[in-house]
Amino acid sequence: MMKQERVNKILEIMAAEGIPQLLISDPAAIFYLTGKWIQSGERMLVLYLSSKGNHKLFINELFPVYDELGVDKVWFNDTQDAVAILSQYIDKGNPIGVDKNWPAHFLLRLMEQAGDSRFVNGSVLLDQIRMCKDQQERALMREASQINDLAMGQLIQLIPGGYSEQKLAQRLVAIYDELGVSCSFAPIIAYGANATDPHHEPNASTLQAGESVIIDIGCKKNDYCADMTRTVFYKYVPDAARKIYDVVFEANKRAIDKIRPGVRFCDIDAAAREHIEAAGYGKYFTHRTGHSIGLEVHEFGDVSAVNTAQVQPGMTFSIEPGIYLPGEVGVRIEDLVLVTEEGCEVLNNFEKKIMIVG
Ligand SMILES: [Mn+2]
């Protein structure tokens, strides 16, 4: 069934922004509004919302959806021109909000067929609603992170087992499986100097004493994602690495302490970044402080120097400062937070004091 409360909210915002019709193609956004995941690959899939109420779901017959979704379905097949069919339903001449990820080959053809309409990025309207999680979503976000805490604990116990990065990542998949969840993204397990690539892909490397292990993992439970990073050390912690760990830990805490409604995302980023800069490692903190998360691991709205939007209750995002000394050591500490009326709730609770394993 269409999630009527959410649909009403988006229709209100469309009216306020003067966008009477919206084309939504992102499967996560369609799930958010209809409760149904539809993955149609390269075939056109569009949920059309209109201020006139004649909402339609345009869908290829190759992806049969038998459920009653509370919205009329317009079927087409591979021998038909999907864009031409869509264009018969839209209100030509009036502005059209378009999904930011709708392939250009669809959009360009629709623009030819509805030339008098003004086309705008319509995703921002829905993205803003999706940023603030409702009570049900908040509960699901908490649950996913609690399970991720359990998985992190089990995984860290395996580190002295002599596994390569790849093998350890495979063990995580098995742990998630036993806990009844799946991966929300490909796990990052990085030993030693590999950890200086923030998006390192696990390989055959094995762990040496004194090296750090970056463990950046997330599960998905009931469609909602967790994401957490811990950095632990094998056998001992070299002094230089301990110094970096302390700086990253403090940056993580300062950013979290900063969070409350009305604070700008860029101020939260600055709370972490300024501490790392003051310690002399500014140029080794190479990425934003965090990203929004929910149905997708990376959602609209990041914790970065250029995002001047204010945080609001119900938003969920990561706080993940890191320092990466090329060829030497990498440390990242990531938590998920849920903004509350007073401040924030940290969704994952796995220990983040420096930890030595093995
Ligand atoms: Mn993350």
TrEMBL record:
Keywords: Hydrolase, Metal-binding. Residues 6-132 form the Creatinase N-terminal domain. It holds the Pfam family Creatinase_N. The keyword Hydrolase applies. PANTHER family: AMINOPEPTIDASE, AMINOPEPTIDASE YPDF. Gene3D superfamilies: Creatinase/methionine aminopeptidase superfamily (3.90.230.10), Creatinase/prolidase N-terminal domain (3.40.350.10). The keyword Hydrolase applies. It comes from Sporomusa malonica. CDD domains: APP-like. One of its GO terms (molecular function) is metal ion binding. This is Xaa-Pro dipeptidase. Belongs to the peptidase M24B family. Residues 140-341 form the Peptidase M24 domain. InterPro entries: Creatin/AminoP/Spt16_N (IPR029149), Creatinase/aminopeptidase-like (IPR036005), Creatinase_N (IPR000587), Pept_M24 (IPR000994), Peptidase_M24B (IPR050659), Peptidase_M24B_aminopep-P_CS (IPR001131).
